[in-house]
Design brief:
The chain is mostly helical. 63% of the residues lie in helices and 5% in strands. The structure holds arginine.
Length: 457
């Protein structure tokens, strides 16, 4: 019968199954570093404010350091009966340092302690995720450079719409990732608020110094309301929202890559090292990675919805429900980090079939808008130009000819405004060039953005 650290008012020890149900050590142990950092700052503050002796504080800090080394070396035994990371570490510290360790929890509750750990953890993870976003953005820039000049059918409604540079299409994802980066900077800002000192909910009777702890741990702000400090999970909701939107972007890109490497499109081929085969069909080369990223999007959305539901209508301040904030958060972190890393590889290794892309542009009517705009430049109102061009397209379909196959005489039958220069307007190169799609300038701008992003890390 092991007595808990809080066991004073109890006559019985916790039922084994109940304890297993309510323990969080199996997942919150990954916050060991943050818990030790937080406790170290707390112990220093207690001594600085004369709440514990400098000697005790020193023993605590040294003891925590030893525990950190033990955990990193894999020599630390996490115990379910000690519930969570906070009590596992506190118990080990007390076993080692005696009364000094027993003084660490002065002026603190696990409620503000867990909030502190999670803030520190999210802050650290956001930076790592932002680094991966930058790496992916760099991959997109490299690909845009490598494939510069390649013309590709842009789609609306998944119908060929207007030709674009393939690099222009790739750089659309750069812009999405840039917003993701900025969203995560917002998440960082909201995680960068220090909750310690809130106690269980109502602060502390001790003369604590929150500023000192905030400075030790490099926090920009301190919670102004102790009840908010222990029950705020907005930064987790924001993290999960930012992660969900990031996954929306990756899933859209996934879907496109999956389509592009189908035989029907044949626009790209993924590296052999990035695909798998079929156990039955010998010819198969499957785009598993983008499929999985597309699939994992669902589970990240699920974590967001689960967390929204957990905090919905939750009364102030701490409730054990809030322990449910961690598994979804951790799984989301793992999922988006892994997805970003593999996606970057996929895009870097992707081979482009420029000929098929070009054929898709030429063997179609995606230059029709250019014919209409040509007529407008000759003085015809756009609506009429649209109608004339529509008839030309209809004629082309009937006679199995594309707009580039028609003769000037055929053009003139639809409008006397057509001249010889119509032929050059129709070429894919002209179509793209005339649209001011300056990929080179976009690449320079994107490169600057990456530099600015890196400077914020
Ligand atoms: N493991 C708990 C959690 O993750 C720590 C806080 C426990 N607080 C309490 N009053 N039981 O939320």
């Amino acid at each position: 019968m092991s007595k808990s650290l809080w066991g004073g008012r109890f006559e019985k020890s916790t039922d084994e199954m109940i304890n297993e149900f309510q323990a969080s050590i199996n997942f919150d142990k990954r916050m060991y570093r943050e818990d030790i950092e937080g406790s170290t700052a707390h112990a220093k503050m207690l001594a600085k404010c004369g709440i514990i002796s400098p000697d005790d504080s020193k023993k605590i800090v040294e003891g925590l350091n030893k525990i950190l080394q033990k955990i990193e070396a894999g020599d630390f035994e996490f115990k379910v009966e000690l519930e969570d990371i906070h009590m596992n570490i506190e118990k080990a510290l007390t076993d080692d340092t005696g009364d000094a360790g027993r003084r660490l929890h002065t002026a603190r509750s696990r409620n503000d302690q867990v909030a502190l750990d999670t803030h520190l953890y999210v802050r650290r993870q956001v930076k790592e995720i932002q680094k991966l976003i930058i790496e992916f953005q760099q991959t997109l820039i490299n690909a845009a450079k490598k494939h510069s000049g390649i013309i590709f059918p842009g789609y609306t409604h998944l119908q060929r719409a207007q030709p674009v540079y393939f690099s222009h299409h790739l750089l659309a994802y750069f812009s999405m990732l840039q917003r993701d980066f900025e969203r995560f900077s917002g998440v960082y800002k909201r995680a960068d608020i220090m909750p310690l000192g809130a106690g269980a909910l109502a602060g502390s009777t001790f003369p604590i110094d929150k500023n000192f702890v905030a400075e030790e741990l490099n926090f920009s702000e301190i919670y102004s309301n102790s009840m908010d400090a222990v029950s705020d999970r907005d930064y987790i909701l924001e993290f999960l929202s930012a992660a969900s939107i990031l996954m929306v972007h990756l899933s859209r890109f996934s879907e496109e890559i999956i389509l592009w490497c189908s035989r029907e499109f044949s626009f790209v081929e993924l590296d052999d090292a990035h695909c798998t085969g079929s156990s039955m069909m010998p010819q198969k080369k499957n785009p598993d990675v983008p499929e999985l990223v597309r699939g994992k999007t669902g589970r990240v959305f699920g974590h967001l919805l689960a967390m929204l539901t957990t905090v919905k209508a939750l009364p102030l301040a701490y409730n054990k429900d809030l322990q449910e904030d961690k598994e979804g958060l951790f799984d989301t972190i793992d999922t988006i980090k892994f997805s970003l890393a593999v996606f970057s590889q996929i895009v870097a290794g992707m081979k482009i079939n420029a000929e098929n892309m070009r054929r898709a542009v030429e063997e179609d009517f995606s230059n029709a808008t250019d014919v209409a705009e040509y007529l407008v430049k000759k003085g015809i109102p756009f609506r009429d130009a649209h109608a004339i061009t529509g008839k030309l397209v209809h004629y082309g379909i009937e006679h199995k000819k594309y707009l580039t196959d028609l003769t000037l005489d055929e053009y003139k039958e639809f409008s006397p405004a057509f001249d010889e220069d119509i032929i050059s307007v129709l070429k894919p190169e002209s179509v793209v060039k005339n649209r001011n799609m300056n990929v080179e300038a976009a690449i320079i701008k994107a490169t600057e953005k990456i530099k600015t992003n890196s400077e914020t890390l």
